[in-house]
Amino acid sequence: MQTYSVVGGGGVRLNVVETGNPSGQAILLIHGFSGSRLVWMKQLESDLPNDFRLVAMDIRGHGLSDKPRDAYGDARLWADDIQAVIGTLGLDQPILSGWSYGGVIIADYVRVHGEERIGGLHLVGACTKLGDPLMRFAGPQFGAVVPGMFSNDVEVMIDTLPRFLRLLVNTELSPTDLSFFLGICAMVPPYVRQGLFSRTVDNDDLLPTIRKPVLITHGEADIVLLPEMAQHHAAKMPHAQLSWFLNAGHTPHWEDPQRFNIALREFAERVAASRGALAT
How many other CB atoms sit within 10 Å of the CB of residue 242? Predict the structure, then answer.
């Protein structure tokens, strides 16, 4: 696995990793709120790299990427981060696969830079709204726990992070997985978390204009972003394929990786074939 330092929007340095077939269809994996590239380990360490070029980034403020203050409210910065990864690594028509908040980042990219340089979009338990427009699609338990994620009080954080993580899955996290995700969350400063939710965003005007292939993947048991969010996306993009994960919550890529990877493989093959670029 190769590691890169990419200069994104406003000069922020982004940590990016790559693995897989350099001639295969590129897939850029974009994690969500309080995550990191590590949430995609069940894809990066699967059989997908045999055929596809997998790239995973730590979004600004997360993982090993820079964590500036006051650099999270501008759609262009987020869009330029994605553009920088595509350009620096020379990704050819990548699929943008965004989990949770990653859907907002994908929408930022398309709004600012258009669809010309990408091959398709994959929304994984994703939102494309923030602030008041998001409220009817967010589960009440998630809304109740989020304020504690912004606290600088250590005791509040110790209480809040495990409660937040337990909302992400339909079944209880194993002690090993809980420790793994706690470590990822703990790397994100509270001011970054608050910055991500300082925006009010509604992309309902943008979604119907998207013409590239779209796959929507959502857990039927998701209590963070309710299934109505996926249904809303499908209604706004009638050409999209909607894939439900019956026993999964907010993390279908982690909870049911075998089926998730098959679905992603089929979508990537379809995108590559439509471009005449199927990996050999």
Answer: 16
Rounded to whole angstroms, what are the CA distances from 83 to 35, 87, 118, 272?
20, 6, 10, 20
Determine the average pLDDT of the residues in 164-175: 94
Kind of pairing, strands 129-130 and 201-202? Answer: antiparallel
Query: Per the structure block, which two tokens stand in for 94?
Result: 């990548």
- Parse the chain into domains and list their residue ranges: 2-275
CA-nearest of 115, 109, 145 to 34 is 145
Q: How far apart are the C-alpha atoms of 214 and 263, rounded to whole Å?
A: 12
Name the one residue in this structure whose structure tokens are 């999964």.
248
The predicted structure's pLDDT at residue 145: 93
From the options 3.40.50.970, 3.40.50.2000, 3.40.50.1820, 3.40.50.10610, give the CATH code of 2-275: 3.40.50.1820
Report d(CA 119, CA 268) in Å as an integer.
9
Give residue 249's pLDDT: 97
**Closest C-alpha among 177, 214, 242, 185 to residue 32:** 185
Is the full-model pTM beyond 0.90?
yes
Cβ atoms of 19 and 49 closer than 8 Å: yes
Task: Taking residues 42-63, report their average pLDDT.
Answer: 98
